[in-house]
Design goal:
The protein has 147 residues and is mainly α. It has 3 helices and 2 strands. It has a domain of 92 residues: Chorismate mutase (Chorismate Mutase Domain, subunit A), CATH 1.20.59. It starts with 17 loop residues before the first helix and ends in an 11-residue tail after the last strand.
Length: 147
């Protein structure tokens, strides 16, 4: 076991009334909800950075899969788990999920369809549209969700 939890001595003599125990439980759950909100926002921020990385990889023709980087991320998570007496297996699983979602999003960005815009006629009749390219991201979920 990775967390040390103090053992109760089995004495249920009513040290805490049901009402105070319920209040303590509600307080701890509120604390947990706040931690969860922070966790979810942090994951959203991480995925948003990954979308920007995907854009850079697409622009610069960099391969999506970077096994060395994946190894570095996993090793850092394992060291963190070890130094905090947490389960390295849990952190491996957690980062497997995060990396899988990152790869899914980067794949959508990197393989986004590039289309030419229709020429814009704003009184300038040069007829050219060089440089008028856009990347269609309609299938990419927005990571810019307001919190």
């Amino acid at each position: 076991m990775y967390f040390s939890v103090e053992q109760r001595n089995g004495d249920d003599s009513g040290e805490h009334s049901d009402a105070s125990a319920q209040h303590a439980l509600e307080s701890l759950r509120a604390e947990l909800d706040a931690v969860d909100a922070t966790l979810l926002e942090t994951v959203r921020q991480r995925l948003e950075v990954c979308l920007r990385i995907g854009e850079l990889k697409r622009r610069e023709h960099i391969a999506m899969m970077q096994p060395r980087r994946i190894h570095i991320v996993h090793e850092r998570a394992r060291r963190y788990a070890d130094s905090h007496s947490l389960s390295p297996e849990f952190f491996d699983s957690l980062y497997d999920l995060l990396i899988a979602e990152t790869c899914r999003l980067e794949d959508l960005v990197i393989n986004a369809e590039t289309v030419d815009e229709t020429p814009r006629h704003n009184g300038n009749h040069n007829g050219g549209h060089a440089g008028n390219h856009q990347v269609r991201h309609s299938s990419v979920p927005s990571a810019n969700v307001e919190s």
